[in-house]
Amino acid sequence: NSTEPSCDLQELDLSRTPTSGCREGWEYDYKGRQSFVTEFDLVCSDGWLVDLYQSTLNVGFLVGSIAIGYLADRFGRKLSFLMSCVLNGIAGILVAVAPNYVSLLVFRTLYGFGVKGGWVAGYVLITEIVGVEFRRTVGVVYQMFFSVGILLLPLLAYFITDWRWLQVAITVPYIVFLSYYWFIPESPRWLLSQNKRSKAVKITRDMAKENQRSLSKKIETLSDDNADSTTASFMDLLRTPKMRKHTFILSFNWFTSAVVYQGLIMRLGILGGNVYIDFLISGLVEFPAAFLILFTIERIGRRLPFATANIVAGVSCFVTALIPDGGSSKDATDVTKSRSGCFHENETSSGSLQTCSGSRRWWPASGGSGSP
């Protein structure tokens, strides 16, 4: 009698099967395109290094927001902004020529330091140049140009196929920004706080002349609005129970918004769709959020938009997690919900941006560092 050959699958232990690295290198399905992931082979067991790369940028954000914030108070808003642009130009080029992954992380951290520092100094400068009644509008419009950058980035990435040249392209504007030395004045309010009244008056007169406005003769007695007040410190945010509560709520919201916002943006890259189109649309949905805040914050206050945006963003993300896997339909739903979440997270951030300042702005950077 003969027996057929058989195989007992219960005795097959795949855990003992030896594995080896890809000896001849990786082959990627990105024809004609080069990213830092493909250049340094940050895939499979090294895939977590991509998330670390993003986290180092946020570490730079955290340190830069603190350091440049201090320098802006000490040496002026304009000088701090220009110093940030110089640092961004240098760090951006260093990122583009980084020879290995470790140096890439170091230069990326420096880049984040300058980017966040320049954002903080620029925000303070532009809101102090205008009148008090225009600060909120200018602050929201200033934030909207971040969304403009989000729209331009995928377009640049589509046409510039090498990541190093793409880095050079997004670094060039920082060099151009150095021309602002001749076009943007120092903050008159900061000059007043430094007892430089003559310079503050001259800048104010020049702005009035440019806008074809006349100034009151009382301009010569111009003084800082806070000249008679005591100097505030970080501890003032924690001094009373009510202030501690408000500080904790806004800080926690900043932290959470940064985690969710960046998490949703990073999610777009793993859904399997066209990453350029998905990223472009994720930037488009930020504009309605900004306009909504712009037209509601003065009419119905801050708390209602603030709370509503948090609730809608949370529900959108929660519903996404409950949707069962379903191939392309699941991916399409995820993209839609992610965009909705980005919309409402941006609405939340834009609203709280106008109600918090100083140390509470450190929390978005710390939240972004932990989002991967």
From TrEMBL:
Major facilitator superfamily (MFS) profile domain segment(s): 1-372
Name used for this protein in its record: Solute carrier family 22 member 3
Single Gene Ontology MF annotation: neurotransmitter transmembrane transporter activity
Underlying gene: SLC22A2
Keyword field: Cell membrane, Glycoprotein, Ion transport, Membrane, Mitochondrion, Nucleus, Transmembrane, Transmembrane helix, Transport
Biased segments, Polar residues type: 348-358
Organism: Nothobranchius furzeri
Pfam families per UniProt: Sugar_tr (PF00083)
Membrane topology reported for the UniProt record: Multi-pass membrane protein
Transmembrane segments: 52-72, 79-99, 105-126, 138-159, 165-184, 248-270, 276-297, 304-323
Compartments where located: Apical cell membrane; Basolateral cell membrane; Mitochondrion membrane; Nucleus outer membrane
Region (Disordered): 344-372
Record bears the keyword Signal: no
GO biological process, one term: serotonin transport
Reactions this protein catalyses: (R)-noradrenaline(out) = (R)-noradrenaline(in); dopamine(out) = dopamine(in); guanidine(out) = guanidine(in); L-histidyl-L-proline diketopiperazine(in) = L-histidyl-L-proline diketopiperazine(out)
